[in-house]
Amino acid sequence: MRTLTLRRGPLGLTAIALAVSVLAASPALAGKSLMRLVFDKPLLESSPPDAALMALFTGEQPKTLYSVVKKIEAAQTDSKIDGIVMILENAGMPLAHVEELTRAFNKFRSSGKKVYCYTDYAGNGAFALASAADHITLAENGDLEIMGLNAQLWYYRGLLEKIGVQADMLHCGAYKSALEPYTRDEPSPEAAENVDWLLDGIYNRWIQIMADGRHVSADQMRDAVNHAPLRAEEAKNRKLIDAIGSYESFAEMLRDEYGSDVKLVKKYNEKNELEVDLQNPFAFFDLLTQLMTPKPESKKPAIGLIYIEGGIVTGRNEPSPFGGGASAASTTLRKAFDVARRDDAIKAVVVRINSPGGSALASDIIWKAIRRCAEKKPVIASMGSVAGSGGYYVAIPAETIFAEDCTITGSIGVVGGKFVWHELWTDKLGANVVEFNRGERSGLMSPNHAWTDSERDSMQKMMNSIYTQFRDRVMTSRGGKLKADLDQLAGGRVFTGQQALERGLVDRIGGLIDAIEFAANRAGETDYDVVTLPKQDEFAEIFAALSGQDREDEYDIGATGPATLFRASTPAFNNALSAYLGDAAGLVSPAIRQLAPDQYDVFMSGLQNMAILNSEKAGCFMPFYMSVR
Fold it and tell me: What's the CA gap between 469 and 97, in Å, rounded?
């Protein structure tokens, strides 16, 4: 009897399998079994809101950091899994993710099981991840492209001058350099100092990860980096890899180690399969019934998991019309924390933060929501790759903050400003704008003139007030934990997770799994579920939306907030760019489309800042956007 197998995961419908199977339960695999993990793109922090529909049409569910780590954890204690095969294919990987995955692989290896890695070539993050394996095979003509960290700061003052745009910007804190790219041609001494101490911390940690994994000294690892790129033979001579060969020779090595009947398990730990008898004429209705049936609620206590990811904005979460994920929207997150606070089944909450900040107002709204939640149950913060400025603001109400060594955090400060387009419209494009105002300050944020001295003083006062509030929030939440005077920690200074730990800005070094386990321990729970909030849609809700029916909005992620990071691959990109650059967008759009992904993200982060300043006057942004290679 033939069946179509569908997989239901934590998001409801998550994938349609591409194979036909036997309706009866599958027999146990003969011989040894190795779980296969393919890293061919960066892992997501959280599943996108449309993950269920994406999986329905692509047959794949999005890979998140949490889901991959949980697979490794499950395989560690699974007697049917004898090892892990890691395949690296151009896997851009932030070091904070590498640290979390390395811990998971090390725990797996502590059980006596081995991890094997194959890669055609590896860059900085990929090789750091590969170092967690017992064995690395590099392709015969492959390279280790571990040339060190190259940080690039982009400055646009000259570009803005060419198109007739003036950046009128203010800041609180000498190190708060978020808007320097629009007003300078190079970093200020404070910004350069910030970059240097960050790179020192990240570089040393990166070296140590690789050296520990490959059992060489840090000095040997630095020497290898200084001589990179390394061809396969040299990499082997330096003990950075174990073998040189094709994937076929790698597979043969595994067969020699585990037997000729060794199996690769490609979709491990994907539960809740739906099966439909394809010979049944009513199979479709059987399938539809299963899909429309809500998942049964678990009776276990739960740890709530709430993601604050991307730019922090006011309003509700809105998946960007230009592609990409959703921003961290204050209304959506406030509701999520209120639900977690009221739900007695949720015993503790972990807030996972991967954000460079954004709106000062939105950050404070979220701060208050987390603080209310923390008054009733434990709230633990887990920082990802970045949790700076507004991202740090929303972390501090948590009773304990976890950060990775390579997390970028801090940046206690405020920026504000506007862009003046008058010269662009009049001198460059021949247009003219005539304003009619009522009220002495009605034109304060007008893009047609720079601030007067009086207006600038008014803006600076407002920003000083926000900065004072930010500092007060830090002292209220962490005053007793700080290991230095706040003046030495604020002002826009940015730190790695390790540097932040030494200064009392965070409490522990660790990842998301560590934070969840810590939260469960604080709540006194040993057997629990992890529930992600806001709740994502079941298939029935998606179907209702497609058919025009109203949807339940208890966890509303409707569209009212500012747009999020824009993606140049979409047709609407030029419209978005034109909103800020006018007709000059046509001059820069082709160049932007050709940027490398990391450089492109830097540019788009700056564009998002412009959008927030345009609507909210002031923000809590990271002091710079930097691409590190």
Answer: 32
Cα(216)–Cα(446) distance, integer angstroms: 60
Region 341-367: mean pLDDT is 95
Q: Supply φ then ψ for residue 612, to 5 degrees.
A: -65, -45
What phi, psi does 470 have (nearest 5°)?
-60, -50
Q: Which of 18-22, 78-82, 205-209 has the lowest mean pLDDT?
A: 18-22
CA distance 30 to 333: 48
The answer to whether position 294 is within a domain reads no
Picking from 536, 617, 616, the residue whose alpha carbon sits closest to that of residue 314 is 616
Q: What is the pLDDT of residues 189-218, one digit of tens each?
A: 999 999 999 999 999 999 999 999 999 999
Among 89, 47, 37, smallest CA distance to 68 is for 37
CA angle in degrees (0–180, nearest 5) for 621-476-624:
15
How far is it, in rounded angstroms, from Cα 626 to Cα 599? 8
Domain ranges, residue 505 = 302-537+565-628
Other CB atoms within 10 A of residue 552 CB: 12
Is residue 102 domain-shared with residue 244, that is, in the same domain? Answer: yes
User: Are 308 and 251 found together in one domain?
Assistant: no
Distance (Å, whole) CA 176 – CA 50: 36
Cβ proximity of 347 and 523 under 8 Å: yes
Query: What CATH number did the domain enclosing 241 receive?
Result: 3.90.226.10
**Nearest to 391, CA basis, from 108, 236, 134, 623:** 623
Q: Are residues 493 and 377 located together in one domain of the fold?
A: yes
Report the SS3 class of residue 438.
coil
Structure tokens given for 608: 């998002």
360-374 and 330-342 are packed helices; what angle lies between their axes, rounded to 10 degrees?
Answer: 0
H/E element, 606: helix 597-616
List the single range of 270-274, 316-320, 417-421, 529-533 with lowest mean pLDDT. Answer: 270-274
Among 625, 626, 623, 310, which Cα is nearest to 490's?
623
pTM of the shown model: 0.82
pLDDT at 563: 31
**Cβ-count burial of 11 within 10 angstroms (0-12 exposed, 13-18 middle, 19+ buried)?**
buried
Please compute, for residue 218, the number of CA atoms within 13 A of its CA located in the half-sphere on the CB side. 7
Is the bond into 534 cis (omega within 30 degrees of 0)? yes
Across the range 491-496, mean pLDDT stands at 95
* 504 and 427 in a common domain: yes
Report the 3 state secondary structure along 449-460.
CCCCHHHHHHHH
542 three-class SS? helix
Identify the domain boundary among 239, 265, 291: 265
Going by C-beta distance under 8 Å and a sequence separation of 6 or more, which residues neighbour residue 355?
A: 308, 309, 310, 311, 312, 328, 386, 387, 388, 390, 391, 394
Instruction: Return the residue matching tokens 């600038």.
Output: 456
CB 557 within 8 A of CB 534: yes
311 shares its domain with 407: yes
Same domain for 522 and 406, yes or no, is: yes
